């Protein structure tokens, strides 16, 4: 059996960019196994040297670690590049090209990379996250009209992670509304969102996948049976169709893929 390849996502900030882009590349190798570790907030040369030792310690005669880096500080980046591992520079390798085109030198600031340098963009994202948290799983019906998007789906179809991702990465105010058993008695949208159909986007899954996910949460329950999952998904799909609500099947899609399709289908602006 082939040993898993160690993968490190290193960053001067949160590491979200390195992790997202790195995982996008790794997804192109479905037959291989990886062990992943994110190391954020590398802000000093001393910390970079500690991380360098950690990465190089993962080297073996047969396995070379992969390092995906979004570190923007040039001194720290050069320190990390001394690794014996394969270093994929997601930041510096393209920055020279952008500088040449714009005829302006970059700031090499981690704050700028994550949007903190642009106060208005940062504030929008923080407000979007607060909105998504307040309106998670139908917890609050207050100010639903202010939502850029309302995700509608049966339980465990991926509403919460998709809402949070769209808020964090794209600055969108996303509410998510769960369809419960009584909602399936009719093809009408539930009353709290009936007047907001133009903001709604539906999520679906496959009965087998939904049953598996629900079974991990409530083993042996009616909620997790294949019959119940099939019924809810059929009724949800009929509801979306009746109200011309766009939808996607989340069973084999990552959160990043779902977010991209939703943005394209809804023609929503990327505010992040």
TrEMBL record:
Pfam family, one: Kinase-PPPase
Name the record gives this protein: Putative phosphoenolpyruvate synthase regulatory protein
Sequence similarity: Belongs to the pyruvate, phosphate/water dikinase regulatory protein family. PSRP subfamily.
Catalytic activities: [pyruvate, water dikinase]-phosphate + phosphate + H(+) = [pyruvate, water dikinase] + diphosphate; [pyruvate, water dikinase] + ADP = [pyruvate, water dikinase]-phosphate + AMP + H(+)
EC number(s) given by UniProt: 2.7.11.33, 2.7.4.28
Described purpose of this protein according to its UniProt entry: Bifunctional serine/threonine kinase and phosphorylase involved in the regulation of the phosphoenolpyruvate synthase (PEPS) by catalyzing its phosphorylation/dephosphorylation.
Biological source species: Knoellia subterranea KCTC 19937
Domain of life the protein comes from: Bacteria
Gene Ontology MF terms in the entry: ADP binding; ATP binding; phosphotransferase activity, phosphate group as acceptor; protein serine/threonine kinase activity
Record key words, sorted: Kinase, Nucleotide-binding, Serine/threonine-protein kinase, Transferase
Binding site for ADP: 153-160
EC category: transferase
């Amino acid at each position: 059996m082939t040993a898993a390849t160690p993968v490190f996502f290193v960053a001067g900030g949160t590491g979200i960019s390195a992790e997202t882009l790195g995982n996008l590349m790794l997804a192109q190798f479905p037959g291989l196994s990886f062990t992943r570790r994110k190391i954020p907030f590398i802000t000093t040369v001393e910390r970079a040297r500690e991380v360098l030792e950690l990465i190089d310690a993962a080297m073996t005669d047969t396995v070379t670690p992969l390092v995906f880096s979004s570190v923007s500080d040039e001194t720290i980046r050069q320190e990390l590049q001394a690794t014996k591992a394969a270093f994929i520079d997601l930041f510096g390798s393209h920055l020279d090209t952008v500088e040449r085109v714009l005829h302006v030198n970059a700031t090499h600031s981690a704050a700028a990379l994550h949007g903190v340098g642009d106060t208005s963009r940062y504030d929008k994202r923080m407000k979007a996250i607060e909105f998504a948290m307040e309106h998670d799983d139908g917890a609050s019906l207050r100010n639903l009209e202010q939502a850029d998007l309302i995700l509608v789906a049966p339980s465990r179809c991926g509403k919460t992670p998709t809402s949070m991702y769209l808020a964090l990465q794209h600055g969108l105010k996303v509410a998510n509304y769960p369809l419960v058993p009584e909602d399936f008695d009719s093809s009408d949208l539930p009353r709290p969102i009936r007047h907001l159909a133009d903001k709604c986007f539906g999520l679906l899954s496959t009965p087998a996948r939904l049953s598996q996910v629900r079974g991990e949460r409530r083993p042996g329950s009616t909620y997790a049976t294949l019959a119940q999952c099939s019924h809810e998904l059929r009724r949800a799909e009929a509801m979306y169709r009746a109200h011309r609500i766009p939808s996607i099947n989340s069973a084999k899609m990552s959160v990043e893929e779902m977010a991209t399709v939703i943005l394209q289908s809804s023609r929503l602006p990327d505010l992040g």
